[in-house]
Model the fold of this input.
Amino acid sequence: MANPQTENGYVKIANETWEALTAYRLPGEQMQCLMFIIRMTYGWNKKTSTIALSEFVEATGIKKQNVVRALNGLLSKKITTVIKKDNAKANVYGFVKDFDKWQPLSKKITLSKKITNVIKKDNKRASTPIKVKDNKDSVGSSKNGIPYKEIIAYLNKQSGKGFRHGASLTRDCIRARWNEKYTMDDFTRVIDAKCSEWKSDPKMSKYLRPETLFGRKFESYLNEAPKTSFEQQTIYEKLEVRR
Done:
């Protein structure tokens, strides 16, 4: 029966980094290899670690050629680093904790050749082409009622920064909160509160970014935020009506 204890060792990682990883979509084999890199670096209080391919295979249970493909995928996303040494049997790997440097994920979905052929065969007898509706919201729109552009424009105005509303990670964070039934007013309240609190603080101003403000702590930030003047006015109006 498994009974893990922190006394036997643990991986120390910042909550902000963990939240960024949670919001960043990675294929299963890439995520397994990334977790092993973090284990072999942060798990030993190191920034980099020399890891052989055989160690990846043993730890993840993934075939060697798939491990190589997964590692190349992580490198292309700039989420890991690698130093290749001549005549060495193992490379030096590291985890890039600065998630602002990670490569934004593409929204494009590429079907394998096998699946494409099955679709073509299945639709061969159709009298008219079958158009599959893309439910993913397009960049720069408020499709499905999610005002990405308006939210980021307000954040840029209040923070003095220049975030793009089309960035994949940004849209993922906003969509997650919007699907939890938060409103535009909730987003502006959090932005106002944190800009007021962090903007003049050199250490905290860097956290005035979508993945932090609209991450898993969104509800906590919202409860810390004071009522806006508009909301206060509405409350007073309701009280006057009751009188």
User: Anything to note?
Assistant: Residues 143-242 form one domain. The longest strand covers residues 91-95.
